[in-house]
Structures are given as structure tokens and as C-alpha cells.
Design brief:
mainly alpha, two-stranded antiparallel ribbon, 4 helices, 4 strands
Length: about 180
């Protein structure tokens, strides 16, 4: 193997190790760890806690990707690659929780950690108040809205907006005002 190829391989391995380290470090650098308030997610009435239906009596856990026809048939998953599905985010054993790539289980009110694994730039911007909504004092306690307060986690892209006409020039407003007299 040529030395340039070896160097490329070593740099690639180091980059993957650094990326994995950053993913695992993300939960430690969260708004909750900084004492910030995050309101509970906006659940649809009657769907939480999940254990009211998923009560643990399932004899065989089926983690195979499939269409859900009995319940949750109204959920259309348009988030990420075609291979993504429910149990990539929802924990299969503890249904009232989500899980990170590392397998760490998290509560729904810490879902920003889950979103931040793939959307690191948005997570960074959210933490500093550039993306999303944050209320509170500039130098005191703040409350952050979760990603799911604005985005549907199953189809997060906003629908296209109809553009409004451009604003009228002030001179046009004066002319229109004189004509209406």
C-alpha cells in the first residue's frame, strides 16, 4: 500500500472516531444541562403515554420495517432516507421513550438530542437561540421550544408558502391616497 493511501486511510479512521465522539458528547452539552426550561412536547390527544396500548405484553418484538395498518396508519413518514422508520427513533422496549444512536434512552422532552444527531447545524443554532423560538430573559432563565413544537417529526419540512406581493413604494401610496379623495 502506498504511503499516501495509508495516510488517507488513517485520516479517514481518525475523522470517523472524532465524529462518533462528537455524537456521544452532544447530550452533555444540552440546554437542559445548562438549566434551561423546555416545555413538554405537543402530543396529539390520546396517544401518550404509548404504554396505554403498548403495555409490554408483546410476546415477540417485531423490529422489521413494515407498514403499520392497524394503528398509526395515519402517520406518513417523510423524514430522511427511504430506509428510515419508527424504531430508528422510538425505543422498541420502553415505548414511552426515544433512543439515541448510541442506544441511550431519552424522554420525549429531550427529543432535541435525537434531532441534533442528524441536524447538528440546526441543533447548534437552536442552543444559541438563532433557530427556533426561545423566550425568557436575555441574561436569565430561558425557555426553548422543542423541534416538534414547530416541525412534525414524521414530516418536518414546512409546506411551501404562497409568496405575497411586494410592498408598495411610498410614492405610490401618496398617489393612491390623493386619488381616493
Amino acid at each position: 500500500m502506498r504511503s499516501a493511501s495509508k495516510l488517507s486511510l488513517i485520516l479517514g479512521i481518525l475523522a470517523m472516531g472524532l465524529a462518533l465522539g462528537l455524537l456521544q458528547a452532544a447530550p452533555r452539552d444540552s440546554p437542559a444541562d445548562q438549566g434551561l426550561q423546555v416545555p413538554p412536547p405537543p402530543f396529539t390527544d390520546g396517544i401518550f403515554p404509548c404504554t396505554q396500548c403498548h403495555d409490554g405484553k408483546v410476546v415477540k418484538l417485531n423490529t422489521t420495517r413494515r407498514e403499520l395498518v392497524d394503528m398509526h396508519g395515519d402517520i406518513e413518514l417523510h423524514h430522511g432516507p427511504e430506509s428510515r422508520w419508527c424504531l430508528d427513533c422510538h425505543d422498541p422496549l420502553q415505548r414511552d421513550r426515544l433512543h439515541l444512536v448510541s442506544g441511550e434512552r431519552i424522554e420525549f422532552d429531550h427529543s432535541y438530542l435525537l434531532c441534533g444527531q442528524c441536524h447538528g447545524d440546526k441543533f447548534r443554532d437552536w442552543k444559541v437561540g438563532v433557530h427556533g423560538k426561545r423566550t425568557g430573559a436575555w441574561n436569565g432563565q430561558k425557555q426553548y421550544l422543542l423541534c416538534v413544537h414547530c416541525h412534525n417529526p414524521h414530516s418536518p419540512r414546512f409546506k411551501a408558502l404562497q409568496p405575497l406581493p411586494p410592498p408598495r413604494h411610498p410614492e405610490d401610496l401618496k398617489t393612491a391616497s390623493k386619488e381616493s379623495r
